[in-house]
Amino acid sequence: MGGRAGAAGSDRDYSFVSPVVKYLVFLFNFIFWIISLVMVAIGVYARLMKHAEAALACLAVDPAVMLMIVGFLMFIITFCGCVGSLRENICLLQTFCICLTVVFLLQLTAGILGFVFADKARDRVTGMINNAIVHYREDIDLQNLIDFGQKEFGCCGGVTYTDWSQNLYFNCTQGNPSRERCSVPFSCCILSADKQVVINTMCGTGMQHLQYVEAGDHIYTNGCIDKLVNWIHTNMFLLGGVALGLAIPQLVGILLSQILINQIKDQIELQHYNLKHRFDPWS
Predict the structure, then answer these.
(1) Least enclosed by CB within 10 Å: which of 161, 175, 215, 239?
(2) How many angstroms separate the CA atoms of 260 and 87, rounded?
(3) Looking at residues 210-215, what average pLDDT do you find?
């Protein structure tokens, strides 16, 4: 009789929830929760440091805004995962699991659509680059990003160097009073091999007046879109590795959270069983 009661007591102390799985889910979410806070903080700081009127001109492509949005969404999702794992709350864990699954599927869908509709994606990128060229002087972050891209890829403009005529300051119309009329940014210039200590920021002056071959002696004449496409084709394996590196943590998070949810459900069923048979150990 006493042995039977002792066995029943040990059954009541048994837990289906594995501490290893529980705290792995918590640690996984806690790390990305901290990262999300850092992303939001950097985004807010970058946004406050910019001139509001200049930033609004390129709000759709503002890196600071994108960083804040992604960081905030990541904060909400990982918060559900952290609290859900510690409290063994099925509702929060399911919210985390569903959100992570949706994010993963959206990324997968975007990758497939980008591959299938490559031409439309190219047109979209072309439009974004042309819009960035128009607002080049209005946003310092955008200006630095374009200059970095043109120097790194050795390109100028979207399709060709004359695309810079879309910008108010570099426009080639006769009535343009700008000192940079018919010029291109210094980042389009071909630097000498000896790496100049002081860069001539006026090296692109009047380059749109020159013919393609003649301008090629001084600046990069090919557009950045073709250079970007070539870079993607050349680094396909690297990009695949990055995509896989982003997908694996998400899949691990989904798997661990689902395992924990099932363990919690089994534990609840065990508790209900013990409660039902508490006064009748022989049933």
Answers:
(1) 175
(2) 12
(3) 91
If you average pLDDT over residues 87-111, what whole number do you get?
93
Report residue 178 CA to chain centroid gap: 37
% of the chain exceeding 70 in pLDDT: 87
Mind listing the pLDDT tens digit for each residue in 33-90?
999 999 999 988 877 776 544 444 444 556 778 888 999 999 999 999 999 999 999 9
Residue that has been written with the tokens 């050795």 in this structure: 154
What 3-state DSSP class applies to 221? coil
Length of the chain counted residue by residue: 283
Question: What residues pair up with 222 in beta bridges, in sequence order?
Answer: 160
Closest CA to 64 of 90, 45, 37, 88: 45
Contact 143, 169 (CB under 8 A): no
Regarding pTM above 0.85, the answer is no
Sign of CA dihedral 247, 250, 252, 258: negative
Looking at residue 12, its amino acid is R
Say how far apart CA 88 and CA 21 lie, in whole Å: 11
Euclidean distance between CA atoms 80 and 279, whole angstroms: 37
Residue 273, pLDDT score = 79
How many C-beta neighbours within 10 Å does residue 46 have? Answer: 17
CA quadruple 190, 129, 56, 113: dihedral sign: negative
Round to whole Å and give the CA distance between 34 and 154.
37
Residue pair 160/222 in contact by the 8 Å Cβ criterion? yes
Q: What value does the CA radius of gyration of the chain take, rounded to a whole number of Å?
A: 29
Other Cβ atoms closer than 10 A to 111: 14
Average predicted confidence (pLDDT) for the chain = 84
CA–CA–CA angle 163, 185, 64 (5° rounding) = 90
pLDDT mean over 112-136: 84
CA 78, 267, 17, 31: dihedral to nearest 10 degrees? 10
